[in-house]
Design a protein that fits this description.
CATH architecture of the largest domain in chain A: 3-Layer(aba) Sandwich
Strand content of chain A: 5-15%
Number of helices of chain A: 20
Shape of chain A: globular
Structural class of chain B: mainly alpha
Order of helices and strands of chain B: HHEEHHHHHHHHHHHHHH
Oligomer: heterodimer
Largest sheet of chain B: 2 strands, antiparallel
Radius of gyration of chain B: 26 Å
Shape of chain B: flat
Largest interface: A-B, 53 and 62 residues
Number of helices of chain B: 16
Strand content of chain B: under 5%
Strand order of the largest sheet of chain B: 1-2
Structural class of chain A: alpha/beta
Chain lengths: ~550, ~325
């Protein structure tokens, strides 16, 4: 028999060490532990060589009028503004940035300019190192990552994300920029940092909670979170469609013709990575159908009347039955989606196969967020003529809505309060002031496919004499808009993207016939009640019992 | 010669508690190295298994969103039992469990029986290898392959169209009528893998003399299988059934990857996935913990039932 006591002590210690190593190795997660989707920290990308210095530095701090065709993104780039602010010249340390996917991966993506600005800032602060921790996955997963880690206090020192969700704003956990905004930005000649944000800082409206500004954005060229509809001209020709639809009836007429011509009229995935497209059209239609409720709920419960619905306002609205399954708009929303679904692509309920069906020429219309336009523009497989238009209004006048509103580049950054605790606030704040300074924004503009323009400008003014670009971007520029954020009396905008998974599934059951309209409305009401109750529980300061 | 006197064994007097402690201390002192060696495993088990388990049970009685924890008693459980989606998820799981039970008791057993009855040699070795080799493919990869296979332009529809059966094509994962069965069908014909290996080992351990005797008595192959082999591998079958139950009670990788529980609210939703979504999407960790606790209790109950059956079988034997 094995005599344990005769083991030499060195052997015992070696065995012990091996056991410790073995135990520390990854094991199956316990079933009761909440799973998280933390991406592995990635190595900081190599510093990109700063853009060539031959191009002239934009001097104006006002948004320039668009007077030239877009500069190709691969052309020689202008120099980024010098990033040494006198007030914080001796910054030192390491700054870890959570970024919305890998912003340094694709030079043709709008986010890449931000990456160049980050790199330039680092270059001018030799004592500072930026490390990148990309947040990966679907939109829902990234928002889930941010919220989970914000609450767990495990986010990086700074977070960069596209269009913010009001549901993730939390003054207890995010740094409030309002005091800094009232002072001068060391990288700007303006009296206050807030003045660096054009159009009366409209981009900050959506990220302000009770006068606390919890995020700052980088730019003001329209809204990168805007959507438009791409059309395949070949399919329109085959279907005999001469003009793009301008009314809802014309839109249906066009889809009917396309279907007859053998096209799949509209790409509307309700599952998979692009399920947010469906959600977005629920929002757009809801914005029109709940007009009366929005007017009633905006400014309720002591909140500010600002043409956008906060989480508190929608919760009040649900509790007061202003937003409910019994509202005519809700019924109309479900019915309209069912009617519309007759023209959606085959298998819209299932996760779509790999590849983009618009690029593959299978569908005639495809909704797209402007930030994703490079994926279509730069795809060599797109041989057909294409362009964009905006969705005609379901009722009333066409009203362009965006994720964050005109005046926002939909590239927001915030600083978790934990960064302050770690003594890195100066670092993070300096970086954010640098990238939002007028000269940085000008630099950003020079590298975009769509040159910066005053919101409200017509497409001919943005792309003068460039018919191809006018057709491609018309849907994003016209109808023109200022402060056009979707008002948000919907689940997605107020309770967060994650909650929309449940909303979409109710629609799926209704559209597939697994549920009657009554059953779907009952399920919808249950979801609304649950979301409102949870929000009220999370916010005792609302004093909801006194509503 | 042994004494015929009936002797009744006297109960051994129980040691006093102080004696027991002394014995325990002495045991620890004598085997200290053993205790030291097992300590890291013990500590890690507590940290990564028992603590989360206890925490999950506690938090199932709370509203918990990481930022705040509020005691709400049985509210999460009540919500779960009142929620038609949760009930549908349990119903789906029952369908999957029963189907998997049928699967585990048929095709791998059939494959193992056929291979076991091949003459030992290259052919048997080759077949055995062929059925065992797929174990090396990660289960997640298998799920992804099948997700493609069930796609609109995936393998299954392509085959059907090639056979002139285009009318039978479906969006297998996008239709309520087919999605759950498509998930159950993943891995068809379900022969290869660990189940096959366990059955094969069990069948090969049956003494050849028993089968020879049956042959001599004129028992057909069919009769030999059902009346000799099957009863003799009953214990292995029980093990596989219990393992299947435990695995599929917890498992949600296929519904997550293939359909995210859809189509609709509960097309292929199972409680494990509902728990995952409550935690990941809704940050409703209390509700997720409640679902996890119920799953834990059900699994524990099944294990206890299994142990009871095993004991009864042993005592019967």
């Amino acid at each position: 028999m094995f005599a344990l006591r005769k083991i030499p002590i060195w052997l015992a210690l070696a065995l012990l060490l091996m056991l410790v190593v073995a135990c520390a190795a990854p094991t199956a997660a316990p079933t009761s532990a909440p799973p998280t989707a933390a991406p592995a920290p990635t190595k900081a990308p190599e510093a990109t060589k700063p853009p060539a210095t031959t191009a002239p530095q934009p001097a104006a701090t006002k948004p320039p009028e668009a007077t030239k065709p877009p500069a190709p993104t691969t052309a020689a780039k202008p120099a980024a503004p010098v990033a040494t602010a006198a007030s914080r010249a001796n910054l030192k340390g390491e700054l870890v940035m959570n970024t919305w996917r890998d912003i340094g991966a694709d030079p043709k993506h709008p986010n890449y300019t931000l990456y160049l600005l980050f790199q330039e800032w680092q270059k001018n602060h030799p004592g500072v190192t930026i490390k990148y921790q990309p947040m990966l996955g679907t939109v829902v997963e990234i928002f889930g990552y941010i919220t989970t880690n914000l609450r767990s206090k495990t986010l990086a020192d700074g977070v960069m994300q596209v269009f913010p969700s009001p549901a993730q704003l939390d003054p207890d956990l995010q740094y409030d920029f309002s005091a800094d905004l009232a002072k001068q930005n060391p990288y700007s000649a303006n009296k206050t940092w807030k003045e660096d944000f054009p159009l009366s800082a409209v981009a900050l409206n959506d990220v302000t909670v009770k006068d606390k500004v919890l995020m700052v954005g980088t730019t003001y060229v329209g809204d990168l979170g805007d959507t438009a509809i791409l059309y395949n001209q070949e399919w329109l020709d085959k279907a005999g469609i001469k003009t793009l639809p301008k009314t809802w009836a014309e839109f249906y007429d066009a889809m009917a013709k396309l279907k007859t011509a053998g096209a799949q009229p509209w790409y509307m995935p309700m599952a998979g990575n692009e399920a947010y497209i469906f959600t977005w059209y629920v929002n757009i239609l809801a914005d029109q159908l709940y007009d009366d409720a929005i007017k009633e709920c905006d400014g309720a419960a002591g909140d500010k009347k600002d043409n956008r619905i906060s989480q508190m306002e929608i919760s009040w609205c649900i509790k007061k039955a202003k937003l409910s399954s019994k509202h005519l708009g809700t019924t109309k929303l479900f019915e309209e989606m069912k009617k519309w679904s007759a023209y959606w692509h085959e298998g819209y309920q299932a996760p779509p196969p790999a590849g983009d069906p618009f690029i593959q020429g299978k569908v005639a219309f495809r909704s797209i967020v402007r930030i994703n336009m490079p994926f279509v523009e730069n795809d060599p497989n797109v041989k057909f003529k294409w362009g964009s238009f905006y969705l005609p209004p379901l009722q009333g006048q066409a009203r362009r809505v965006g994720n964050a509103g005109a005046g926002s580049g939909s590239q927001y950054m915030f600083i978790p309060k934990t960064t302050q605790d770690k003594g890195k606030l100066d670092l993070a704040l300096d970086l954010l002031q640098y990238v939002t300074a007028p000269k940085s924004i000008e630099y950003w503009c020079t590298l975009q496919t769509v040159p910066c323009y005053q919101p409200g400008s017509g497409i001919e003014k943005v792309f003068p004499g460039n018919a191809v670009m006018q057709e491609r971007y018309r849907g994003f520029i016209e109808p023109p808009a200022v402060d056009n954020r979707v008002r948000g009396l919907d689940i997605n905008n107020t309770y967060g993207q994650a909650s929309t998974t449940n909303e979409t599934k109710i629609f799926q059951d209704y559209l597939s016939g697994a549920m009657t309209l009554d059953q779907a409305l009952t399920a919808y009401q249950r979801l609304l009640d649950q979301l409102a109750d949870t929000a009220i529980r999370q916010h005792p300061e609302w004093n909801a019992d006194k509503w | 010669m042994m004494s015929q006197e009936l002797t009744i064994a006297k109960p051994i007097p129980r040691a006093k508690s102080s004696q027991r402690v002394a014995t325990l201390v002495e045991g620890v002192r004598r085997n200290w190295l053993l205790y030291v060696l097992i300590l890291p495993t013990f500590l890690f088990s507590i940290a990564f298994y028992y603590y989360p388990m206890a925490s999950g049970i506690y938090h199932s009685f709370t509203y918990w969103d990481i930022k705040r924890t509020i005691w709400i008693g049985f509210e999460n459980y009540q919500r779960m039992f009142d929620d038609p989606v949760a009930l549908a998820a349990w119903r789906n799981m029952l369908t999957i469990l029963v189907s998997q039970l049928v699967i585990v008791m048929t095709t791998p057993l059939l494959g193992a029986a056929l291979v076991a009855h091949l003459r030992p040699g290259l052919a048997q070795y080759g077949w055995r290898m062929m059925f065992v080799m797929p174990i090396v493919v990660p289960a997640t990869v298998v799920v992804f392959v099948w997700r493609w296979f069930y796609g609109g332009d995936g393998g299954l529809n392509t085959i059907l169209r090639a056979l002139g059966l285009g009318a039978l094509t479906h969006l297998w994962l996008g239709e309520n009528a087919t999605a759950l069965w498509a998930i159950i069908g993943t891995g068809f014909p379900w022969v290869a893998g660990l189940n096959f290996l366990i059955y094969l080992a069990a069948l090969q351990s049956i003494p050849e003399e028993l089968l020879d005797a049956a042959r001599v008595d004129g028992a057909s192959a069919f009769r030999r299988f059902f009346q000799i082999e099957l009863p003799l591998i009953r214990n292995q079958m029980m093990v596989l059934i219990v393992l299947t139950f435990i695995f599929y009670l917890r498992s949600f990788d296929a519904p997550l990857i293939m359909t995210n529980g859809g189509p609709g609210m509960a097309g292929t939703l199972v409680p494990g996935l509902q728990m995952y979504r409550a935690v990941r999407d809704d940050l409703d960790l209390g509700y997720g913990s409640a679902i996890g606790t119920v799953l834990f209790v059900v699994t524990l109950g099944l294990m206890l039932i299994n142990q009871l059956i095993s004991r009864r079988q042993k005592s019967d034997a």
